[in-house]
Amino acid sequence: MIIQEYLQRLLPGKNISDVLVTKITGEASNRQYFRIQEKNNSRVLCIDPGFRSADPASYPFLVLHNILASAAIAVPRIYAADNVSGCLLMEDCGNMMLQDAVREKPELTEPLYLDVIDIMVQIQRIEKEGDAIAFTLSFDREKLMFEFDFFITHALQNNRNVSMGSAATAQLRRQFESITDELTAETGLVLNHRDYHCRNILIHNHQPVIIDFQDARMGLAQYDAASLLRDSYHKLDDSLLQRLQRYHYDSLLERNLCSTAFDEYLRLFDLMAFQRNIKALGTFFYQSTVVGNNSFKQYIEPTIAYLPDYINRHAELKTAGRIIMETLAPSLS
Fold first, then answer.
1. Cα angle, residue 198 at apex, residues 173 and 318 outer, rounded to 5°
2. Where is the domain boundary, 72, 91, 110?
């Protein structure tokens, strides 16, 4: 179907011959987005192949949208959905990402990030509702090791600029298993957005709006915090990072979502941030070398630059960190 046919299914009886259709650049996803502009109106069309022939009542995006909206989390409104074409027509919340907002007006960085942490904690407070899939999935051993293995495959083994023997690969994987054991030994899991970074947060009418939430699952509260505060797309200065970590920790304590000391919160934050950054690197190399999407190459070095901080602070990361830095960093120089 062409775009106009999709729109006619979503807006039966409406004359859509004069609409202006503009493609919106997306992230590393198979979903496509288009801005649909009329004379006095603008909406966003999402074409999601995974929605075709799916049951809307159990489709993750729609389920999570309802959960978040019910918890007063700002998400784009949905005007229409059609599971035959796999299309959704949604509110247009503009192009201004958190990344753009803080670069244009650096003085807004701290207040905006405080607001975004407040929203993150609102999400983390949400309790299980029915049999929604987000509450049945978690960052368990299988998920974390899948992401670690994805990194090994695409950042190391399939990287023509890297030479890594089988012994070093096996040793690195054992270290990843040990780190995974540390992370999955923790209890007190909360709902996580799963990709809570500055490009999945729009600033619309001066307020944050959360997008790309369909893969939410249970995990440590530090997972989304690490995604936001150790973001591949925008680096925060150290003093602000520390204030925001403390703010998140205090917010968790106030809502009985955390019972550990601050030092333990920070240790788990670093371990989770290490895993999150490794996962991001796997995605960036995959997008560059397999998909042919070179837009992510620019974020590889900034993400690697985070790793020494974690490695130097925590003995449990030293061996894995040494292997990664000795193997991967020289290929980028």
1. 25
2. 91
